[in-house]
Structures are given as C-alpha cells and as structure tokens.
Amino acid sequence: MENYIYLDHAATTPMHPEVIDVMTEAMTSSYGNASSTHRIGRVSKGILEEARAVLAASINAASNEIVMTSGGTESDNMAIINTAVKYSSVGKHIITTNVEHAAVKEPLKQLERNGFEVTVLPVNKEGSITIQQVKEAIREDTILVTVIYGNNEIGTLMPITEIGEYLLTLDHKVVFHTDAVQAYGTEDIHVKDQHIDMLSVSSHKINGPKGLGFLYVSDELSIPGLILGGQQENKRRAGTENIPGIAGFKRAVEIRQANKPQLKKDYQKLKNRCIVLLEESDLKFEVNGSVENSLPHILSVHIKGVEADKLLIHLDLAGVAVSIGSACSAGNVEPSHVLQAIHSKAHPAIEETIRFSFGYGVTEADIEAAVQKLAKAVKFLA
Amino acid sequence: MSGGVDSSVTALLLKEQGYDVVGVFMKNWDDTDENGMCTATEDYKDVALVANKIGVPYYSINFEKEYWDKVFAYFLEEYKNGRTPNPDVMCNKEIKFKAFLDYAMSLGADYVATGHYARVSRDEDGTTHLLRGVDSNKDQTYFLNQLSQDQLSKVMFPLGEMDKSEVRRIAEEADLATARKKDSTGICFIGEKDFKQFLMNYLPAQPGNMVTEDGEVMGKHDGLMYYTIGQRKGLGIGGNGTSNEPWFVIGKNMENNELIVGQGFTHTHLYATHLTASQFTFTTEKERPETFSCTAKFRYRQSDVGVTVHLNKEDNTARVEFDEPARAITPGQAIVFYDGDECLGGGTIDKAFKESELLQYV
C-alpha cells in the first residue's frame, strides 16, 4: 500500500501503532475472562475498568454510565429500541431528523412498525435542524429525541446543546440520544453540560480497533440491555468482554483526547486546503452542507457533471481512496438520503458527490496529490 | 466478472499475460427475496474471492435500468407476440458490449474481456474477425452475432482457444474459489426458477385449446407464450391420435389463441424450406453481395446447415433458403451466418415457409 492516499477516515480509520502495541500486549498476557475471580481474570477486569474510566472522562460522564458495546450500530440500537420499550407506557412518540445514520433509521422504522410514531424533522440546505423545529414537534407523549451529533456524509453539526437545554425545560422527561460516532473524534463533548442522556461512540473511527464502541447512558435513566445473557456491564450488555479490543480502544481515546484541539485544527486546515486546490484546478464544484458548521474531517463535494461512481474507480486505480455518497455493494447503490435531504430527490449532486475524510497520517501533500489526480480523472471523464 | 469460472479464468489468464486487469461485476437484475437473499450478492462474493486471489481490483456497477429497458422489455414484447426471444443475444448487443463497454472505456480501458467461448482475430488492415470458440460444444458466437465491428474491435475472448475442461483445470490449479462452481443455466434473470411461473408475473396468461391441424381439440394449453415450436415436453397429451408417436407443438394461432399440435418428431409441419428474418447486422464492414451462400445456425448448439441468403440491404431483411428442409424454425430466435470458422453476423427470424406456404408459427 505504498503511496496509497487514504481519504476515507469517516468510513473507518487505520489503527494507531500504539493501539496495536497495547492490543498485542493484552492479547498475549491478558487472556482472562473479566468475570472470573482468579488472578488472570482480575487482570482483565482491571483493564476493563481502567478503560471505562478513560472513556467516561472523555465525555465528562461517570464510569458507571458507560456500557461497552460492539460498536456504534449496537449503541444506537440499544439506545433507541430499549428507550422505546422502557417508556412505551408513558408515550409512543419519537423525534428524529431525516439525515440519521442507518443504525438509527432502521431501529426507528422497526419501532414504527410496532406502533410507535416517529416525527422526522427535515434539515435545511446546510444539513441542520433548528431548535424551533424540535419545539414544534414536541408532544406530551414524546419519549425520545434522537439526533445525530455531526453528519457522517456531509459533516454538518446539529444544535445538540440547545436541544439538550430545551428538553430540560419540559414538564415531562424526554430522553435525548445523540449518535456521536463521527463527532466524537474532534468535538468537545460534555454530556452533563449539554444535557445528553445517551450518546453512541465507535472505536474504529478514532484509530481504535473495529468491533467496539460504547453507549453512554445517564445514571438518571435505567435502560435495559439489548443483548441478553450473562451479567456483564451491570446486566446491560451480556457477553464476555473483548479485553484486547477494549485496551486498544482506551489507548485510542487517550491519544485522541490529548491531541483533540490540534487534530481539529489540522483537519480544518486540510479541508480548507482541499477547497482552495479544487478552486485552483478549475473544477466546477460545490461543497455539500456547510463549510463552517461542520466536522473538520469531512468534506463532501458535488463535482458537477461527473458521475461519482466512475470518479471513485479512477481515483482508486490511481491510488486515492475516497467515498461516494453512499455505500454500494454488488451493484446495489442506494441514493444518499442525506444528499436528498439537503438538495432534492433527483438533484444531480446525488450522483455526483464524493466525500473526502481526513484523519491520522494524512498530509497536505496527500491532499495536493489527490486533487491533482481528481482533476485528471474529471478531465478524462468530461 | 460474473462470479463464474469462465470470467474468473479470463481474468487470471490476462493477469498472467501481463495485462493491467480490472474486474467489473455487473448487476443487471434484482432478485432479492423476502429473506434478503440475492443471487448477485452471492456471485459478487465469489468475484471478491477470485479477484483478491489473483490480485486485481474489482468493482461493481449497476445496469438494472438499462437491462430492463433494452433487454427485458424486448423479452416481454416478443413473448406477448407469440415469439421466442433470445435475451442473451440482446444482452450482449446492448448491455455487455455496449453499456458496459462504454463504461469500461470511460474508466480508461483499452479492451473489454469476457469469458465467452469465441475468438477474435485482427487483420493487418485493422479488421477484427469473430471466430468460433475451439470447444465446439461451448462455442458462443451464436449469442455474439449482433456485435458490430466497432464493438468487436474492443473485445478480447481469452477462453476461445480452450475447452471448458481446461478452463476448470486452470481454475483448480490456481485454487480459484469458482473452480467447481456450477455453470449457470437458463436465462440469467430467471435462473433456476420455474419459467412459467416467472413469466406469469409479467404477462397475463390466456389459456386456450390445443388443436390438431384438422381442428380437433386435444386438450388445453396454459397460454401460447409458454410454448415453442417443436416442443414436446409439457403438452400432457398421450395415447390419443392416429399413432403412438409423441405430440409436438407444430404451430400457433394467435388470433384464436390455439396451440397447434401434431404427432411425430418429423411432423411435416415442422419442416421449413426457407425463412425470412430482419434486423441483420454483420460483424465486419465488408461489402456483402445481395445473394451469397454460407452455413447458418438458427438455434444454439445446432450443427450448421447450408443456406443461400438473399439480402435486402434497404431494410436489413433477408430471405434465407435451406439446402435441406430445416426443423422447428422458431420466430424470435437468431439466425446466424458462418463462413467456415468465422461468424459473419445474423438477424432475427420472423417467418418460416414450406415452399410457398407460410408456416403458422406465430
């Protein structure tokens, strides 16, 4: 993979070398089951609880508010489905947006099939909603508001703090969940100050191992587990803990937390540089969503008049990895619901958008080479 | 790359020959069932295994819309008119060697290679000739007859020099995941499903009578579109009639919705002396005389028969006379011309005649 330019960090990230080191060490020496009483079990238990403290501190939560999961998708599923189950006697109304990740959209669809009512707030051109929209949608039987923190396709940030503050002023409890899978790596999150009740995080988006994540659940709530079995995670998530993975996740979070302000600046710089280079290369393009109110590591660009699927192949063959609006497998391409939400159902941007996303190891030289190759491909396709 | 053994070996051979190979999987049809199972998804997994094994990049593209518009719509229309379409010929002409070829060119490709059992040879003057595959049992030029010179100039068929058994052997030796995968059979979008059931989803079936040439009712048919000229299976008539010989479909009366049946494989009504066909295309741009002799196939895997062709260049139609009477000429199928090993091109059969009499086949 020499000279390979990886600009798809929103899809997943390479593991940080230090993460690999601690995982290798944990795999070798900490094979115990964290639920076991004996010595090697206690070693694992120690790793688990130390990690939990680090994860909790990263969002200003308490350790007992962190449930280890298999990743962002499980965290979202648990938060949504089990909040609905728990509060169904109080009400069956849920509020969300039309730009959520599938891990939120699909559980909500299932709840709808089971008698819940979901209000889907449409985002504006930038990809955001306003607090006013939430206020207007709130009802006496609303039990849950779930809003993505920062969008995975276009990066747009949502007014999370305002929503949290507003929900607090209501006469009845409305649980506030946010999918922070993309935002966690660069945004300063303070669940208490922001009045967030539940928050989903994934490890592999921040140079940690795949197959791990956590769900923060405020200790004011009592949400049952989704995966049933043993008594792990205070009975909220059964299954033997992935100790080497958790050790790696912890290290990834530590590195992230120590470097967050710098990373944020670095990514913003890369993003700005990328936009300038695109302008200089005379490409007809438009940034989807917002440049300012956006996650710094995500840049979604509508390259006008060029089919993105072909562009992606050209770039890949030239050694540059980007992503197009939506995942595609075996020839199945679902048009991006996010791009449809900020444009219109049949807008050209839906077929002509590529997403750059930055992360560990990406340099300005990479961006320069990538844009150069992009311009060449666009010229070929024109 | 379809996820089958032929295209797998095609990719392998080209890679070994030093070509810069890019695997592309085409999804032309969606057959996702209620459990979320889809043939394309399963096949794509095999493409991934094979491409990774031989070290080539692979991608998937979707031509469902093009396939529906250009191939499936034609397929239904032909059945509606009582004819027997050949979607594989149309798919090659419109999808594999048009939509897909264009796509490959836009990715910067010089050639498109497929796992067809056929050969191309290129003259010094730049003409590309389409030749039969060496494995006569597998030769697929019949399905490629509609390709133009422009299309042929951009294709490669690395398997044309090989037997199927050799292809399997190469796949085994290279430990390709598809080495022992079953060959796909039938029309790709129907697959192993029941043909009647499939067609019923798209075209209303109009049951009617099965009658003899003399008008004697022999039974019921399920809808004329389900039957092909010369067909024996599925008629459900036994023991009746003037002999013990089996019954065959010998004609269709679309007007009265009657299926005409007759006894004996060699029933006289099944034999034609000439046919008319349309939509002729030729594989090279060489000027054709108005009348010429060559050999022809009017169905896949049939031996060639000697014919004399009277071409009407104005409207791309032809009258094709057989040296010997030919059995079960089927309107809608392709008539394909050969000069020795070279496939000259072909057209679509419209009508069959016995001397001056039009055989009532549609």
UniProtKB/TrEMBL annotation, chain A:
The lineage of its organism: Bacteria, Bacillati, Bacillota, Bacilli, Lactobacillales. Its EC number is 2.8.1.7. Its cofactor is pyridoxal 5'-phosphate. It holds the Pfam family Aminotran_5. GO terms for molecular function: cysteine desulfurase activity; iron-sulfur cluster binding; metal ion binding. It catalyses: (sulfur carrier)-H + L-cysteine = (sulfur carrier)-SH + L-alanine. Residues 5-369 form the Aminotransferase class V domain. This is cysteine desulfurase. Belongs to the class-V pyridoxal-phosphate-dependent aminotransferase family. NifS/IscS subfamily. SUPFAM superfamilies: PLP-dependent transferases. InterPro entries: Aminotrans_V_dom (IPR000192), Aminotrans_V_PyrdxlP_BS (IPR020578), Cysteine_dSase (IPR016454), PyrdxlP-dep_Trfase (IPR015424), PyrdxlP-dep_Trfase_major (IPR015421), PyrdxlP-dep_Trfase_small (IPR015422). It is an enzyme of class 2 (transferase). Keywords: Iron, Iron-sulfur, Metal-binding, Pyridoxal phosphate, Transferase.
Automatic annotation (TrEMBL), chain B:
Keywords: ATP-binding, Cytoplasm, Disulfide bond, Nucleotide-binding, RNA-binding, Transferase, tRNA processing, tRNA-binding. Its main location: cytoplasm. Its EC number is 2.8.1.13. The record marks H116, Q333 as: Interaction with tRNA. Residues 138-140, 299-300 are annotated as: Interaction with tRNA. GO terms for cellular component: cytoplasm. It comes from the Bacteria. It comes from Alkalibacterium olivapovliticus. GO terms for molecular function: ATP binding; tRNA binding; tRNA-uridine 2-sulfurtransferase activity. The keyword Cytoplasm applies. Belongs to the MnmA/TRMU family. This is tRNA-specific 2-thiouridylase MnmA.
